[in-house]
From TrEMBL:
<dbReference type="InterPro" id="IPR039420">
    <property type="entry name" value="WalR-like"/>
</dbReference>
<feature type="domain" description="HTH luxR-type">
    <location>
        <begin position="170"/>
        <end position="235"/>
    </location>
</feature>
<protein>
    <submittedName>
        <fullName>Response regulator transcription factor</fullName>
    </submittedName>
</protein>
<feature type="domain" description="Response regulatory">
    <location>
        <begin position="32"/>
        <end position="147"/>
    </location>
</feature>
<keyword id="KW-0597">Phosphoprotein</keyword>
<dbReference type="InterPro" id="IPR000792">
    <property type="entry name" value="Tscrpt_reg_LuxR_C"/>
</dbReference>
<keyword id="KW-0238">DNA-binding</keyword>
<dbReference type="InterPro" id="IPR016032">
    <property type="entry name" value="Sig_transdc_resp-reg_C-effctor"/>
</dbReference>
<feature type="modified residue" description="4-aspartylphosphate">
    <location>
        <position position="83"/>
    </location>
</feature>
<dbReference type="GO" id="GO:0006355">
    <property type="term" value="P:regulation of DNA-templated transcription"/>
</dbReference>
<dbReference type="InterPro" id="IPR011006">
    <property type="entry name" value="CheY-like_superfamily"/>
</dbReference>
<dbReference type="InterPro" id="IPR058245">
    <property type="entry name" value="NreC/VraR/RcsB-like_REC"/>
</dbReference>
<dbReference type="InterPro" id="IPR001789">
    <property type="entry name" value="Sig_transdc_resp-reg_receiver"/>
</dbReference>
<dbReference type="Pfam" id="PF00072">
    <property type="entry name" value="Response_reg"/>
</dbReference>
<dbReference type="Pfam" id="PF00196">
    <property type="entry name" value="GerE"/>
</dbReference>
<dbReference type="GO" id="GO:0000160">
    <property type="term" value="P:phosphorelay signal transduction system"/>
</dbReference>
<dbReference type="GO" id="GO:0003677">
    <property type="term" value="F:DNA binding"/>
</dbReference>
Amino acid sequence: MAAVGLSQAVRSTPAGALPASMVPHPREELFSVLVVDDHPLLREAIAARLAQMGAGTVHEAASVAEARARATATGPCDLAILDLGLPDGSGIELVTELRNHGWPRIVVLASSDDPYAVRSAFQAGAQAYLLKSASPMVVTDGVRRVLEGGVYADPSVAPVLATGTRVPGTDNTPRELSAREVEVLQLVADGQSNKEIGEELSLSALTVKSHLSRIGRKLGTGDRAQMVALAMRAGVIR
């Protein structure tokens, strides 16, 4: 599948044409990028900014299916920038797939500052979470930080990460839930039984029950509906 939008224009940007300050440090060589978003104008704007930053190749895709095809054709690029709200599938699942296939750096560019989405993106393997409403400078800073091997959160979502996966219990005291406990609670919220949750997570029904008992002790309630309500209110699950 051919790259679309501005990909052709930035495919062979000469390194010497860029001021040294615009080349991501310490990566002096050109870098390759996959941009996945279903809005053509936004993709073009991102591609143009990446070219200014030193991108030599910018591949584009408008959907999960196109992104998978592009990823298969090119192999891992230096960087992927993904929208979470794609028309044909989950952006979070795409983050996980790319990471599992050796993509080293992934930046999420999303419309939502929903706490669950923010946490899910980082748990899936993203190194940055940026909002589409962010200024060009914030986007540039986030991409540069990731290219340098760091992580970055849009300033407006950073407080979400600071709270981790803490859920106020029935006594309003915040309790920390493990990643597995959050997974179990999310599946409870989705209406699954202990057996179904076990099958989904490759656990026995008894182990699922143990997780729920531990969550109940932390939150001060053994009622499944109340546990889910507390976790939703804290933005830990959707």
